[in-house]
Amino acid sequence: MTPPSIKKNLLAWLLIPLLSLLGVISLNAYYRSIHISETVYDRALYDSVLTLGILVHSHAGHVTVDLPPIARRMLEVDPMDSIYYAVKTLDGRTLQGDATLPLGPVLHARDEVPVFFDGQHQGIAIRISAARIYAQGDNTQPVIVEVAETLKKRQAMAREILQQSIAPVLFFLLLATLVVGYAVHRALRPLLRLSETVNQRSSLDFHPLPTDTVPDEVRPLTTAFNTLIQRFEASYTSQKRLVSNAAHQLRTPVAGMRVLIEAELLDCPVAQQPPILQRLHQSVLRMSRLVTQLLSLSRAEPGLPIDMTTLDLSALLRQVIDAYAPLAMARNISLQATLDHDLIMKGHAVMLAEMLGNLIDNALRYSPESSQVKISTSKSATALIIHIEDAGSGIDASDVDRIFERFYRGQNVSSEGTGLGLAIVKEIADAHGARVSLASCLHTSGTLVEVEIPRL
Fold first, then answer.
1. Which residues, listed in sequence order, are joined to residue 115 by a DSSP beta bridge?
2. In the predicted model, is pLDDT for residue 231 greater than 80?
3. Is there a single domain that holds both residue 439 and residue 328?
4. Are 62 and 85 within one domain?
5. What values do phi and psi take at 419, rounded to 5?
6. Out of 16, 186, 228, 301, which residue is the most buried by the measure of CB atoms under 10 Å away?
């Protein structure tokens, strides 16, 4: 189900009355245009009835219609409509004109009072004006005079009046729609600004949102959000303190256990070393690495001040590669390095060494024995780029979005690890304004890691 939109709801509630008003105005204009056109043309039609009535004469009880041919043509000719007329007695006998014109209510009307009504003539709608008129002369009985016409002029006039009436209304509706849309957009602008402010914040920015510049309707939401931020900050600070303290407290005993176990292993020939002692040594090594990573993660938290110095990235990278050369030799992995010279940048040497060490350590751990890991550098106009390519099983597409989460391990991971290495890499890279990307290699099954660090 699509979530409701405040903007659409406001526009709907504001525009529906306007559209209803337009409908009422349009309906009123329609009937008004019909009424005006009928009134105008009914008067003209009745004038024709009066003119024709003047031509009716009575002498010695004999009624005649003195209608010259030129007058008949003038009466019947119209540029748009067809005109019909008839002069009849009260008993329905036609004295002159079209005998098929209906008499309608004129039979029961008062004398000399005009009657207007709609009818049909040969299947065509017509408008009829009729009246009981006394003939000129000695006739004491009135005759019925009818003049009818089709409705083309009336309909054309009604349309013209309707269009002239509706055009300003449509313009007003368009203008009102634009004004209402702008007003709604302006009214919701504080919400948009609030959304932009929240989206631009770091995940560890716990400063409260301002409440003095937001509208009264938004202030309860802002206050509730600030309360939530305070709760989250307290929870995060407590968790961070716990992890940091635990890592510091574990570091010394773990180091002591490692020294004692390694001393015991040195006292025994390799063939006589107890398997349980070897497994214990591996467990202590993993625990020592986890403690070290937790401390590194604590130091790399966003928002903490970092002492940046100018350094040569290529020299720092060579030092880290040399530090991991024994691990590469132990796994019979060829560590190939192709490094540019004078990669000058500003950064924190210890943190960058930790980041590079984690990337190289991952590459060595996830590559099979007797394979190779390639490390190279390049430059662009704005960045120094480090490329690290391993020979492992690659990265699954479903893992790309979560690979930098803490304690997350991908689907293709088979070696042991803590799931913190890439999280540390991401935190340190963000602290230096760098960008880290991972992708499966195009020509091998391994993973290619690229780190783009801003140039000095």
1. 130
2. yes
3. yes
4. yes
5. 80, 15
6. 301
pTM of the model: 0.47
45 lies in the same domain as 13: yes
What was the pLDDT predicted at 416?
A: 60
39 & 149 share domain: yes
Tokens of 140: 């004491």
Domain that holds residue 129: 6-159
386 and 455 in contact (C-beta within 8 Å)? no
CATH code at 353? 3.30.565.10
CA 147 to each of CA 127, 195, 294: distance values in angstroms, whole numbers, following the listed order = 9, 74, 105
Under 8 Å between Cβ of 376 and 337: yes
Residue 146 sits in a domain whose CATH number is 3.30.450
Evaluate whether 249 touches 233 at the Cβ level (below 8 Å): no
> Average pLDDT of the chain?
81
Regarding whether 324 and 447 lie in a shared domain, the answer is yes
CATH number, residue 229? 1.10.287.130
Q: Are residues 93 and 47 in the same domain?
A: yes
Percentage of the chain with pLDDT > 90?
15
Q: Please list the residues that pair with 377 across neighbouring strands.
A: 386
Q: For 394-415, what is the HEC assignment?
A: CCCHHHCCCCCCCCCCCCCCCC
Token pair for 59: 């002498």
Long-range contacts, 415-419 (Cβ 8 Å, 24+): 415/365, 415/366, 416/286, 417/362, 417/365, 418/286, 418/289, 418/290, 418/293
> Taking residues 26-33, what's their average pLDDT?
81
Interval 421-436 mean pLDDT:
85
Query: Tens of pLDDT along 368-395?
Result: 888 999 999 999 888 999 999 998 887 7
Q: Is-contact 368 332, C-beta < 8 A?
A: no
| Distance of alpha carbon 415 from alpha carbon 327, whole angstroms | 15
Q: Is residue 387 part of a domain?
A: yes
Beta strand segments in 50-103, E: 56-59, 62-65, 83-88, 94-97
Q: How far apart are CA 209 and CA 198, in angstroms?
A: 8
The per-residue pLDDT for 308 is: 85
**pLDDT higher than threshold 80 for residue 140:** no
Same-domain check for residues 353 and 421: yes
Supply the DSSP string of 345-382, one letter for each residue.
EEE-HHHHHHHHHHHHHHHHHHSPTT-EEEEEEEE-SS
List Cα–Cα distances, 305 to 298, 300, 342, 359, in angstroms.
Answer: 12, 10, 26, 24
Distance in angstroms (rounded) separating the CA atoms of residues 356 and 343? 15
Residue 164 lies in a domain: no
Taking only Cα atoms into account, the Rg of the chain, rounded to an integer number of angstroms, comes to 49
Pair (246, 368) in one structural domain: no
Helix 313-330 with 349-366: angle, nearest 10 deg: 30
